[in-house]
Amino acid sequence: MFENMQDVRVERDVSMASLTTFRAGGHAAYAVYPSTPEAWGAIIAAAKKENIPFAVLGNGSNVLATDEDFAGILIITTDMRDVRVEETCVYAQAGASLSAVAVTAMKAGLAGLEFSYGIPGTVGGAIFMNAGAYDGEMQFAVKQSRYLDEDGQVRVLEKEEHAFGYRDSYYQHHFGMIIDCILQLKPGNPEEIKAKMDDFMCRRKSKQPLMHPSAGSTFRRPYKGYASQMVDECALKGFRVGGAAVSEMHAGFIINDREGSVADIVAVIQSVQKKVFAEKGVMLEREVRMLHEIILNGIFNKNIP
Length: 305
Ligand SMILES: Cc1cc2nc3c(=O)[nH]c(=O)nc-3n(C[C@H](O)[C@H](O)[C@H](O)COP(=O)(O)OP(=O)(O)OC[C@H]3O[C@@H](n4cnc5c(N)ncnc54)[C@H](O)[C@@H]3O)c2cc1C
Known about the structure:
Elements lengths: L7 E8 L11 E8 L2 H14 L3 E4 L5 E2 L5 E7 L6 E4 L2 E5 L4 H10 L2 E2 L11 H7 L2 E2 L2 E2 L4 E7 L5 E5 L18 E8 L1 E2 L2 H18 L6 E4 L9 H7 L6 E2 L2 E3 L6 E3 L6 H19 L8 E2 H4 L11
Parallel strand pairs: 2-5, 3-5, 4-19
Antiparallel strand pairs: 1-2, 6-7, 7-13, 8-14, 9-10, 11-12, 11-13, 15-18, 16-17, 17-18
The chain binds flavin-adenine dinucleotide.
The site of flavin-adenine dinucleotide (FAD) has 34 residues, from β3, α3, β9, β13 and β15.
């Protein structure tokens, strides 16, 4: 179905484990990598015409796939990764690595993205999630983003229209595939910016189980307290189902350290939720998004040509 399409790389029958940092899941019928917004628009037009489900993935660092194969299209943004600096702004395409953008900004003497160094996602995924760490969040940097609407038209969202909240944005509630953005930063000293970034990276390495597949913090911050502390206090560190477990190093991380299935990971998530609710009266909400939650045209599986 992608014959004669330009500016798109197409892979068939792709392991979703290879596309997500949890490293679990079955196969997707297609992984397609547009390198222009026009190609991206053509992909969604074709998918809609054939009534085939599609979803957008950046680096897959906050998505849990399905063990079941996905008879649909994963549109992967990482071939759209241009980054350029204009005065105190950074222009970045959605598929650019967030850490790479932070490094570009640092080298240009621009402060404001230090917090994001080490978050293993793309710029598009970070805007979608309003990713944050160490008192920083994407919302403080985003000046504007552009996205494709359902008809493949390019639309613009200004800063205040993003409806940013804790790990929340406009894009979680409206159809919109982010193609690029402008980040407004502040002049700073590159050495000081780098020192801050290195410090944050050190803290990550010392506290997070980065050696194992995961999607970072599995749960959102609850209305009171901290998810990791509650999980720890419920003596769940090391709790395991099959290949997945609560990290011994950081109770907020569920890791897939023994090549587990999505079912293993889901079982750990649900067991943790159950025990924390029983002992603390708090229902932890997932921050990690399931594949069926990110499908943009409302249908999960359908036989496709
Ligand atoms: C080791 C580790 C550490 C982490 N640390 C942090 C942290 O400190 N702070 C934090 O906030 N998160 C953290 N995360 C989670 C994750 O990295 C972030 O949520 C990141 O922003 C996700 O980006 P991504 O490109 O991987 O998005 P994906 O996981 O690919 O997608 C996430 C969501 O965004 C949507 N999406 C992606 N790109 C687009 C686009 N261009 N247009 C529209 N929708 C899009 C997807 O459909 C999906 O719903 C961590 C994850 C890991 C594995």
